[in-house]
Specification:
binds zinc ion; mainly alpha
């Protein structure tokens, strides 16, 4: 197994990236809504 391969986000199975974590990951959807952070910049 190559350690340089991106690991899927264990919470949702998507590939981890800054964009994913900030904008896409459903793990943080509720947090974003709570703080009224828009889903797009
Ligand atoms: Zn995720």
């Amino acid at each position: 197994m190559d350690k340089t391969d991106p690991e899927p986000h264990i919470t949702c199975g998507a590939e981890i990236s800054i964009k994913h974590l900030l904008l896409e990951c459903r793990q943080f959807n509720k947090e974003r809504a709570k703080h009224n952070i828009p889903s797009s910049i």
